[in-house]
Amino acid sequence: MTTKLISGTGLQLLRRYDNRAESVRAQLLDDDGPAYVQVFVNILRDIFKEETVEYVLALIDEMLTANLKRARLFHDKSLANEDTYEPFLSCDLSSKVLVTMWSANIFIVQGQKPRMALLQMEKIQRRRALPLMMY
After folding, report:
1. Which Pfam family is one of this chain's hits (predicted)?
2. How far apart are the C-alpha atoms of 32 and 112, rounded to whole Å?
């Protein structure tokens, strides 16, 4: 595994989002939510430092806890070419974060029933030979 650097644009978005009040974060997500989700997913995919991964997972957890409807941002058309499942399946998620994401339907592809999404997750994991995490 090779760690990559965060892009300049990603760093700008992260700095704009970091240490802001929930009301400011909510406005940023309303204005350009998919861009922030893409930054979070890219960090989880490309950065392997444990503290960084935990921090980004905490940001995502806070984002979803404040408003579960934000899970739709992970299914935005602009992310259609992104594998938004992979970073979550390959990192060691705490059960609280995983349950929050599951209940927020991040792992459920729009228009599919939960069972279909679970089958899709299993297929992805078989390709990567990762154990299925169930809570």
Report:
1. V-ATPase_H_N
2. 25
Tell me the pTM.
Answer: 0.68
Q: Which amino acid is at 110?
A: Q
Task: Please compute Rg for the chain using Cα positions.
Answer: 14
On whether the CB atoms of residues 54 and 93 are closer than 8 A, the answer is no
Beta carbons within 8 Å of 108's beta carbon, 6+ residues apart: 114, 117
Structure tokens at 7: 């892009």
CA distances from 55 to 14, 52, 72, 93 (A): 11, 5, 21, 12
> Which single residue is written with the structure tokens 């989880």?
44
- Dihedral sign for Cα atoms in the order 63, 65, 69, 73: positive
Task: Quote the DSSP letter at residue 69.
Answer: G
- Which of 18, 107, 26 is CA-nearest to residue 66? 26
Q: pLDDT tens digits, residue range 62-86?
A: 898 899 889 889 888 888 888 777 7
CA 55, CA 17: separation in Å to the nearest integer?
A: 13
Q: Where in the chain are the domains?
A: 8-128
